[in-house]
Amino acid sequence: MSDSSNDNLELAMQEGKYIRTIRSFVKREGRLTKGQAAAIEKCWPTMGLEHQQGMLDLAQVFGNDNDVVLEIGFGMGKSLVEMAKSAPHLNFIGIEVHRPGVGACLMDADEAGITNLRIFEHDAVAVFADCIAEGSITTVQLFFPDPWHKKRHHKRRIVQPAFVESLRSKLKIGGVFHMATDWENYAEHMLEVMKAAEHFKNQSETNDYVPRPDLRPLTKFEQRGHRLGHGVWDLMFERIS
């Protein structure tokens, strides 16, 4: 890295900006089905959000002042669509970098007639930094992120102190960061990072994990894991200041 790049990075950090230097995902360009491609073409004008739009006025985006739930990395979007359908009094934003997942989510949302969901196809760190106003989000959800299970790859895990601090400012006071993983080592990592994070309170009565709340749908993948005896760990931390 050049001296000027180092200077720019240091200045950004001093200004409280989070700069991604290591990516927490690998871009995999799967092939779109015809249905997914058609859903993107049909639904993107009304449901799609662009990073280049800059800072969002969420009341204008949704046409109301309802609380906003934001999910990072929604995969194929099944659970996100289910949540949006079950909670029409809430607004939902999903962020996903994989285009087939975006197409699948939009296709399901269109079939369900959902109007309280918007989608970014972009890097979540950049979206948080450039598009989400401070104190505007009620809940941030991170369900089953890539665990980067090899020790040498742990630095790629998205739950890191700098990202948590950037996320905190986007939550309302009383807002919640809700994480779930089926990798025990990643759950322990999440808990360690969140316990060290200032201005958060663990909602667990035992100061570790919480039972899966009803608001998080049980996925087919998770049901299969339960049958095989695999564990799933939920963590919910509230912004208190």
TrEMBL record:
It is an enzyme of class 2 (transferase). PROSITE patterns: SAM_MT_TRMB (PS51625). Gene3D superfamilies: Vaccinia Virus protein VP39 (3.40.50.150). Keywords: Methyltransferase, S-adenosyl-L-methionine, Transferase, tRNA processing. It catalyses: guanosine(46) in tRNA + S-adenosyl-L-methionine = N(7)-methylguanosine(46) in tRNA + S-adenosyl-L-homocysteine. Pathway: tRNA modification; N(7)-methylguanine-tRNA biosynthesis. S-adenosyl-L-methionine binds at residues 71, 96, 123, 146. GO terms for molecular function: tRNA (guanine(46)-N7)-methyltransferase activity. It comes from the Bacteria. GO terms for cellular component: tRNA methyltransferase complex. Substrate binds at residues 150, 182, 219-222. The keyword Transferase applies. Belongs to the class I-like SAM-binding methyltransferase superfamily. TrmB family. This is tRNA (guanine-N(7)-)-methyltransferase. It comes from Pseudoalteromonas arctica. The lineage of its organism: Bacteria, Pseudomonadati, Pseudomonadota, Gammaproteobacteria, Alteromonadales.
